[in-house]
Design goal:
Elements: H1 5-16, H2 19-36, H3 45-78, H4 83-91, H5 98-116, H6 120-131, H7 136-143, H8 147-164
Helix pairs in contact: 1-2, 1-3, 2-3, 6-8, 7-8
């Protein structure tokens, strides 16, 4: 514990990004390591400890992500709420802020403007595939191209975008 406690904490914290949760999981990991020592095969102690710590942190993160649903269901049962009351609780969640809606709209306008800069033969397939979310087959039927030609154009269009656009423009 003294030799690897701080190391385990840092490892767990890197996964969870929460000091309180990292402390709890570190304690669990230390107990798990102690209980698992008879199974240790004497090769790479630090690697073995790290693997246990990371796996436990990931498990904790997954279980924490599921908890809000479980708590809501439990509250509904304990408070004997009807379906309609539970739905009312869901509808009471805050709507997205006007600022985030405006930013998203501006971002979409920018993306559409960038797509409009593409050469015509690329713009058509990019717009159909990414914006209209059509399949290769649908695009092929609409454009009169073979499916392989649609795939090729999408591939070439992506290469064209990589060469002509900067990643920073979209961050």
């Amino acid at each position: 514990m003294q030799a690897y406690g701080a190391y385990i904490y840092k490892t767990v914290y890197a996964v969870l990004h929460s000091p309180h949760d990292a402390e709890d999981v570190t304690q669990e990991v230390l107990l798990l390591i102690y209980r698992s020592l008879p199974n240790y095969r004497m090769d790479g102690l630090k690697t073995w400890i790290t693997r246990i710590a990371v796996n436990r942190a990931i498990d904790f993160k997954r279980s924490k992500a599921r908890r809000p649903e479980q708590l809501m269901e439990q509250d509904a049962v304990e408070g004997q709420q009807t379906e309609y009351e539970a739905e009312g609780m869901l509808n009471a969640l805050p709507a997205p802020a006007a600022e985030s809606i405006a930013l998203r709209a501006e971002e979409l306008r920018y993306i559409h403007a960038k797509v409009d800069e593409l050469p015509d033969h690329y713009r058509e397939v990019i717009h159909a595939f990414y914006i209209e979310e059509k399949t290769y087959e649908q695009i092929a039927v609409e454009t009169g191209l073979e499916r392989k030609s649609v795939e090729s154009r999408l591939y070439r269009a992506r290469n064209w975008m990589r060469q002509h656009w900067r990643k920073e423009d979209f961050e």
